[in-house]
């Protein structure tokens, strides 16, 4: 059995929280909702993903992501150390398996903020995981949010919009859909789904 965080006593399996996955198209507000939720409820553990993407200004290794080389990512995948992984916009992202298991075993609510490919992989490996889809109020609003970031090239934006069409079509694969018209309301709804009060 994996060690539990900070030496916590393992919780019996029938009392452990379900792993919750939050997914949705780029620009829908996943990070904003999660930040708001964790500000109010820091006990919810947000998995830190490994990525081959270069850090953006202000991002810190081990806080926002574990920034790894292509070779390091290859090893993580080959050794089965990732619960899920996906490639997006030329970069790979993955969720370290051991840390998720450790927190769930300790009874800590765990949230993964991942893309559609990753959500599908989690569903395959952990059938009882709760998959939550975060949808935009409208397609027009999603386009506005993506183009308004000002951090990406037109080519990257077009790839993100193409991926968003695919992700929106996959909404029925999820257990629950939340529409992001209000960050505060969506955060409350997500916490309720996770049984965090």
UniProtKB/TrEMBL annotation:
Keyword Transferase: yes
GO MF term set: ATP binding; GMP kinase activity
Keyword Metal-binding: no
E.C. number: 2.7.4.8
Alphabetic keyword roster: ATP-binding, Cytoplasm, Kinase, Nucleotide-binding, Transferase
Enzyme class: transferase
Catalytic activity: GMP + ATP = GDP + ADP
Localization per record: Cytoplasm
GO cellular component terms, A-Z: cytosol
Residues covered by region (Disordered): 1-28
Residue numbers binding ATP: 24-31
CDD domains xrefs: GMPK
Guanylate kinase-like domain: residues covered: 17-195
Major subcellular site: cytoplasm
Pfam families reported in the protein's UniProt record: Guanylate_kin
Role: Essential for recycling GMP and indirectly, cGMP.
Family, per entry: Belongs to the guanylate kinase family.
Name recorded for this polypeptide: Guanylate kinase
Organism per entry: Actinospica acidiphila
């Amino acid at each position: 059995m994996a060690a539990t965080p900070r030496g916590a006593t393992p919780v019996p399996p029938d009392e452990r929280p379900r792993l919750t996955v939050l997914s949705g198209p780029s620009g829908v507000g996943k990070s904003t909702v999660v930040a708001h939720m964790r500000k109010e409820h820091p006990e919810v553990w947000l998995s830190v993903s490994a990525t081959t993407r270069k850090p953006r200004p202000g991002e810190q290794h081990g806080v926002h992501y574990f920034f790894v080389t292509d070779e390091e990512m290859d090893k993580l995948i080959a050794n089965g150390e990732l619960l899920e992984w996906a490639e997006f916009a030329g970069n790979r992202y993955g969720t370290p398996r051991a840390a998720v298991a450790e927190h769930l075993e300790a009874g800590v609510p765990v949230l993964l903020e991942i893309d559609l490919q990753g959500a599908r992989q989690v569903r395959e490996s952990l059938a009882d995981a709760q998959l939550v889809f975060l949808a935009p109020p409208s397609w027009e609003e999603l386009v506005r949010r993506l183009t308004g970031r000002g951090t990406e090239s037109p080519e990257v934006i077009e790839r993100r919009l193409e991926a968003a069409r695919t992700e929106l079509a996959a909404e029925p694969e999820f257990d629950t859909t939340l529409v992001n018209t209000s960050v505060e309301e969506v955060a409350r709804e997500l916490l309720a789904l996770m049984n965090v009060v």
